[in-house]
Amino acid sequence: METESEPYVRLATLRQLHEVMADMNTARSLADTLQTVADGVVNGLGYELACVNLVRQDGDLVVAAFAGNPAAEALITGRVGSRDSWERRLGMGEQWGDLVFIPHTEGWVLDDDDVPQWYTDGPAPRFEDEWHPSDRLFAPMRTAGGSGGELIGVLSVDRPRNGRKPGAWGREALQMYAFQAAIAISNARLRANMQRALVRLEREQQALRASEESFRQAFEYAPSGMAIAEMGGDQHGRILRTNDALCRLLGRPASAMRRYAFSDLVHPEDIGTLLRTSAEGGRAELRLGRRDGTYVWVSLRNSVVADAADGPRFLLTHVEDIEERKRRELQLAHRASHDSLTGLPNSAELRARLSGRLCRRTAHAAEAESIDAAYGHPGYDAGGHGFDFRPGAELYEGHDHHEHTVAPEDGRDDGAKGLAVLFCDLDGFKSINDRFGHNAGDAVLIEVARRLSAAVRDGDTVARLGGDEFVVLADGLGRADAQDLAVRLRNEIIQPIRVDSRAMRVGASFGIGWAHCGMTADEVLKSADERMYVEKRSRPKQHRRAG
Q: pTM for this structure?
């Protein structure tokens, strides 16, 4: 079972993983890129050792970069392993998606092959998923991802810091990292080739025609999108030329592309990102419009192609398709913030959403509240907008841009609207688990989550706090509105739920709390929880059958 802290760890790891993958694309040379890939495994994925084995032109693999152990780096960096030995390694062991894991019980047959390695030994594992020093884990890096692309190298990792074999989430993170590393290495090679071509264009004036042909081929046959645009003048940014890869990516013919600038194709929400991108060496991740009206996530990298005599002449833009990476990032983020059973926001996400509505008070803000009677409540200007002239009103953090959350007064419906927090606890759920098993209990929780989600408004939040506890955040409600919502939700929940041809019933107890600025998320949830228990104790006991 997932602990409450694991979503926070996943989110932190995801942010760090995103940073190290971004670093791969900012390295200045192929050598820097390879070392950044190795360092990223150690700094972002939680392994103590990482080795980048790069495929050479002759097919063999050379140790191109190492991270985590200076002694091992000095011993094996630059050494070569034959392609046959590597193919043997990648064809044995356990297939973890695109990864290859060779346990220490099988790896002994590889001890004498010609693949450079840093060998250690240790005692037998004490538990099933404990990492043994002789375990081997390889992440192939291929041009197209998966098993169908051309192999450009292999990431070899060792010694997870937590001492355990990576779980499903860790394997997916390593697999995604290897996919992005393959792209970064391919792009680094491409940039190196293009830079050499551009240098020849500038320095080899007598061989200009040959150099132009070399550049044309590198441009036209690049596997990712390329574009040349005007730089300076009234037509700055207008696209002059595109390659086939970019035309295919956007579904637009080259003749049509010449009518646009990138500013015409970018998603309206990303235009600011494009405008902030430097012309020389600038990089941005944004969405470009396809011909069919959809958008695709891309990474833009700009370079200035200059003429030695006349200065800058045009802008060379490299366009990389990152749709798959963005999709995986969103999937990982969703898994870290949502309940795996019901798909609802989990406890961490609920607290984050609630905290985002509540500004915190400084130490002196409470003193300002104590003199409200002397200064009155916030006033209103001629336009009907509130302004607070009490001492200490400016001490609420975020007061300059935050619309404060207030709660209706206790004991009466004064017409005020606030953020209602409905704490829901299922009655009789334990008996379903006891009588029919956890599969039936899970089916009931899934159906309750569906009914709650269907019964609230767009914009309201339904979250699973844990076990059989749910929380609903509903903004803009008065006290009567919140009570009506609780009754409506309870009536939805108590309807029979069919599981395996059985009709099962559960009850529901609701506690209604109110959020207002100055409270923490935990204080708000505790208040609603306490009200729920007060309501439950005040109701007469009822005997319900589970099915």
A: 0.48
